[in-house]
Q: What sequence folds into this?
């Protein structure tokens, strides 16, 4: 065998060993890469698993009949107080629709509310809605409750329309509370009221996302968000909030009564400005510009 | 280098970039619509407008945008063909940092905000997928010259 051939043999052997080392290095790297990816997936799995296994869904305070005193305070806000507040301080107003005819139920324009007892934004919105509607009719069987204890703005004091009734010669009010504030197994909250087919059609038309609070003023104006920050009500009792409504300079009065005045203006458009004392008041005309 | 490597990594990053652009747009243009979702857990608006949507004052969506914009050059075919320590290690470190940030964001979504945003989850999945592709793809390359 010549020297060149021996060198060739040695170089081939070295090349094979180098290739083998590279293959082993790649295999080792692939194993480490696989372990790294598995670790990443495991960490994500642990975070998600811990969250869903925590079961921190604490039951919220359920419904209780609203006291006569509380109902009187919220449904009987003096007209002078509402007039003084005027526009108040409202963050979000309902939006007018276009080309829609007034939706009537039982011969009267419909005001439809969809909410859920867990929802903190619905919790805030019921206060001005009750104030406004009370200027056109009478509530019965209102209940007090609180929003979810684990959601944003936890335990916001509010009312529930579930089981309540509203009588009025001017409008028909249909409230639907689709869920409670009680956690359901598997997540979410337990179901409560069902939408009728007509109500579902309203939601499908004006609230495709199905979010709430949702308020439909005769298909003429639609509200799909809370009109003020629910944090204003944090830490207060129902009676304390009702007491704040008496002071037109308080932040709660400006927010709640200002929103109520905006709602009153929308309802007046549906009722041909009836009752006249309500619809011609400075409270109602603050938003309608009448 | 396998032919699937640059194409796959680039595609993942481009989709991630698109999602980040959308989330950045939503962050800056969406008025925090204060409404509850019918699904009390999945709520993109709540997540993208939450206080936790900013880290050190910088919107998380923008950080995601910067991540994908920054890593895309390292995923181009020419970059994969470069057998330099800087490009290879830089690519892996960047994707590892991205994954660590995903851990933080998932934790914040679930434990602080209490809501999930499907778009954010999509970006998280893409970031982890990119990490896996970069790792396994790097394993197919020739070892670095010492």
A:
């Amino acid at each position: 065998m010549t020297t060149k051939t021996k060198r060739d043999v040695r170089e081939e052997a070295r090349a094979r060993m180098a290739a083998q080392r590279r293959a082993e290095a790649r295999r080792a790297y692939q194993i480490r890469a696989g372990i790294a990816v598995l670790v990443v997936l495991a960490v994500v799995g642990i975070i998600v698993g811990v969250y869903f296994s925590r079961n921190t869904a604490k039951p919220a305070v359920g419904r209780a009949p609203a006291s006569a005193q509380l109902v009187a305070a919220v449904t009987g806000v003096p007209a002078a107080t509402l007039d003084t507040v005027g526009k108040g301080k409202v963050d979000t107003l309902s939006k007018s629709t276009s080309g829609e005819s007034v939706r009537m139920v039982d011969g009267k324009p419909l005001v439809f509310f969809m909410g859920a007892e867990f929802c903190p934004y619905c919790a805030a919105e019921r206060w001005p809605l009750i104030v406004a509607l009370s200027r056109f009719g009478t509530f019965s069987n209102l209940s007090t409750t609180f929003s979810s204890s684990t959601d944003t703005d936890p335990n916001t004091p509010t009312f529930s329309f579930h089981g309540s009734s509203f009588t009025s010669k001017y409008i028909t009010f249909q409230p639907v509370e689709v869920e409670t504030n009680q956690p359901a197994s598997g997540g979410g909250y337990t179901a409560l009221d069902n939408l009728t087919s007509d109500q579902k059609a309203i939601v499908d038309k004006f609230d495709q996302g199905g979010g709430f609070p949702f308020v439909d003023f005769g298909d003429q104006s639609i509200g799909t968000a809370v009109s003020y920050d629910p944090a204003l009500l944090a830490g207060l009792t129902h009676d304390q909030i009702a007491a704040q409504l008496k002071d037109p300079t308080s932040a709660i009065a400006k927010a709640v009564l200002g929103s109520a005045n905006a709602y009153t203006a929308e309802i007046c458009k549906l009722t041909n400005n009836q009752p006249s004392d309500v619809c011609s008041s400075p409270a109602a005309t603050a938003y309608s510009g009448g | 280098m396998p032919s699937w490597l640059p194409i796959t990594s680039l595609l993942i990053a481009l989709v991630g970039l698109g999602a980040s652009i959308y989330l950045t747009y939503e962050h800056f243009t969406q008025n925090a619509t204060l409404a509850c979702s019918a699904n009390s857990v999945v709520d993109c608006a709540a997540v993208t407008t939450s206080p936790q949507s900013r880290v050190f004052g910088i919107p998380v969506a923008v950080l995601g945008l910067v991540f994908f914009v920054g890593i895309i050059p390292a995923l181009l075919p020419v970059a994969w063909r470069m057998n330099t320590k800087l490009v290879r290690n830089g690519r892996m470190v960047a994707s590892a940092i991205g994954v660590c940030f995903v851990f933080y964001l998932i934790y914040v979504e679930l434990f602080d905000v209490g809501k999930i945003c499907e778009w954010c989850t999509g970006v998280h999945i893409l970031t982890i997928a990119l990490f896996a592709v970069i790792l396994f793809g790097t394993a197919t390359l020739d070892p670095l010259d010492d």
